């Protein structure tokens, strides 16, 4: 993508004390005149240091270290004994709860060191999770992929000279909740992007020059990426901890480094991908297992997202967009969108692994979605697959519940051209009755052919009974989130296979 240029983790529960200790080792002995007020504290990692408590606010404590510097950190990062001491100090000291804390550190050696390691201006203070998602994405120059009331994402496919951690990323994405950053993921060498020879968007089915590299070349590059990233993180943050992450078919082994409330997780799945993600430490401690969102919350979300327009359109809003980029990941990208919409964490690269996706993309929708379906059911949701003729009545039953339908079709050049022109025409129509009359006449006469090389999966997101149309959404970026086609035209290119994630 253009204008994609590089500039130039311990946790809130696991102190970044070592950064301060390394700068203060020669001054840890009590300062003359302060000996009576100094106390030896211990963090949950067993590191001891001396200082005195000077303020408490909310869940944070400020200490003055033996060298005179003030340091603010989470109370939960102290040993149980020290947490009890801080609680006692707070209740007995008139200034304990009233003293305001200094502003968070905006820059410093440690933050600068992490940013330099990544090659990104990612951190401006010690808490990425308190940073607004949009502002962070602008700082990184990562373009918006999706924005809904409950989630947002900013994804890019950098040009080949872009570097993160001194090696080439193929895909970068920043995730956020309603307003704050929730995680970051960088995919390095991987079988999808590495071998991709297709275009993006509607050009996806126009094959480009074949990539000459072999599977052995990919493995060699994956080994290189893993080595470079691991060495850089180890040099900055010490040895990694090996742990399992995820569950079900997406469970994997990751190597983990903690820093100031952030867990850096590096994974390499042989022949699949190398990924570096940054997650909250609490999330990493739970091995990536999120608390299930109650059905009542999801049910209300589904109903609130149904929009009924004056012209008879019934559409589902706020389905997260996932841009698959120039690789054949329509199935895992589409599955990710529907899973996240129903409150189930998902990532298309992990899903591609589960579905045994081929180099450069391309997979059996049924193989992938049946495998993913087992995980979906394990997480307490329902997953259904069925074969039938494409029927507006059947689609409407799901849309009226706020549930999108994954649909297998042949996305031919003629089909896309028809959908684009139809979408533009209905958007600019000044007389809706004339539009309806024309569409019924034109669509019945329109004949679309099938090309097996254009097998594709999209999401049906809406319908209009009066015009006999359905709305669908491709995993090609925001421009493709809502396009329209008549049911008679859609039937001509339909594979007559459907997939639904529901409560």
CATH architecture descriptor text of the largest domain: Alpha-Beta Complex
The end-to-end distance, rounded to whole angstroms, is: 38 Å
The radius of gyration over CA amounts to 26 Å
The number of helices is 15
Task: Specify the helix fraction band.
Answer: 25-40%
Task: Give a quick summary of the entry.
It is built from 15 helices and 20 strands.
Q: Which tags fit this structure?
A:
eight-stranded antiparallel beta sheet; elongated; alpha+beta; 15 helices; Cathepsin B, Chain A; 3 domains; SH3 type barrels; 503 residues; 25% strand
Description:
Helix 9 crosses helix 10. With 503 residues, this protein is of the alpha+beta class. The strands form 3 sheets. The chain has an 8-stranded antiparallel beta sheet with strand order 5-6-7-8-12-11-10-9. Strands 13, 14, 15, 16, 17, 18, 19 and 20 form an 8-stranded antiparallel beta sheet that branches. It has a 4-stranded antiparallel beta sheet with strand order 1-2-3-4. Strand 7 and strand 8 (181-190) form a beta hairpin. The chain has helices at residues 17-24, 80-92, 109-118, 133-140, 191-194, 215-237, 281-285, 295-304, 330-341, 348-354, 365-378, 392-399, 413-428, 432-445, 487-493; strands at 39-42, 48-57, 60-65, 70-74, 144-147, 152-156, 171-176, 181-190, 241-245, 252-259, 262-269, 273-280, 306-308, 314-316, 382-387, 405-410, 455-464, 469-473, 483-486, 494-502. The longest helix has 23 residues, at 215-237. The protein starts with 16 loop residues before the first helix and ends with a strand. It folds into 3 domains: 17-92, SLA1 homology domain 1 (SH3 type barrels), CATH 2.30.30; 109-285, no CATH class; 295-502, Alpha-Beta Complex (Cathepsin B, Chain A).
């Amino acid at each position: 993508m253009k204008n994609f240029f590089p500039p130039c983790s311990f946790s809130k529960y696991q102190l970044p004390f070592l950064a301060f200790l390394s700068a203060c080792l020669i001054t840890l002995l009590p300062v003359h005149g302060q000996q009576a007020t100094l106390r030896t504290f211990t963090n949950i990692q067993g590191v001891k240091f001396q200082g005195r408590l000077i303020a408490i606010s909310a869940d944070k404590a400020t200490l003055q270290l033996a060298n005179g510097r003030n340091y603010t950190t989470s109370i939960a990062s102290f040993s149980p004994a020290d947490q009890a001491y801080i609680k006692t100090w707070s209740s007995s000291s008139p200034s304990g709860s009233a003293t305001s804390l200094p502003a968070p550190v905006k820059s410093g050696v440690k933050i600068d060191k992490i940013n330099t390691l990544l090659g990104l201006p990612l951190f401006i203070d010690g808490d990425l999770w308190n940073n607004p998602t949009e502002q962070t994405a602008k700082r990184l120059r990562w373009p918006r992929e999706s924005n809904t009331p409950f989630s947002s994402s900013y994804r890019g496919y950098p040009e080949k000279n872009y570097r993160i951690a001194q090696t080439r990323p193929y895909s970068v994405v920043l995730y956020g909740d309603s307003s704050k950053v929730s995680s970051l993921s960088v995919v390095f060498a991987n079988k999808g992007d590495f071998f991709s020879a297709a275009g993006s968007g509607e050009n996806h089915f126009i094959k480009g020059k074949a990539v000459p590299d072999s599977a052995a070349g990919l493995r060699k590059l994956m080994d290189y990426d893993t080595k470079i990233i691991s060495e850089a993180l180890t040099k900055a943050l010490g040895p990694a901890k090996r742990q399992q992450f995820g569950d079900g078919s997406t469970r994997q082994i990751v190597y983990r480094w903690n820093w100031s409330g952030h867990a850096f997780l590096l994974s390499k799945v042989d022949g699949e991908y190398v990924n570096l993600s940054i997650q909250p430490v609490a999330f990493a401690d739970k091995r990536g297992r999120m608390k299930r969102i109650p059905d009542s919350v999801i049910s209300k979300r589904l109903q609130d997202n149904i929009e009924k327009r004056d012209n008879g359109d019934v559409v589902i809003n706020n389905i997260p967009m996932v841009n698959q980029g120039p690789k054949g990941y329509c199935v895992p990208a589409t599955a990710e969108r529907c899973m996240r919409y129903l409150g189930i964490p998902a990532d298309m690269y992990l899903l591609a692994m589960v579905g045994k996706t081929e180099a450069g993309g391309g997979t059996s929708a049924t193989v992938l979605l049946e495998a993913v379906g087992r995980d979906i059911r394990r997480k307490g949701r329902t997953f259904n697959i069925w074969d039938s003729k494409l029927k507006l009545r059947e689609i409407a039953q799901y849309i009226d519940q706020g549930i999108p339908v994954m649909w297998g079709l042949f996305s031919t050049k003629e089909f896309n051209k028809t959908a684009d022109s139809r979408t533009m025409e209905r958007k600019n129509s000044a007389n809706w009755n004339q539009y309806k009359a024309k569409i019924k006449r034109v669509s019945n006469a329109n004949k679309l052919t099938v090309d097996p090389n254009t097998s594709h999966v999209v999401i049906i997101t809406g319908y209009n009974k009066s015009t006999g149309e359905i709305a669908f959404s491709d995993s090609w970026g925001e421009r493709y989130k809502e396009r329209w086609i008549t049911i008679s035209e859609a039937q001509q290119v339909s594979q007559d296979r459907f997939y639904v994630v529901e409560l």
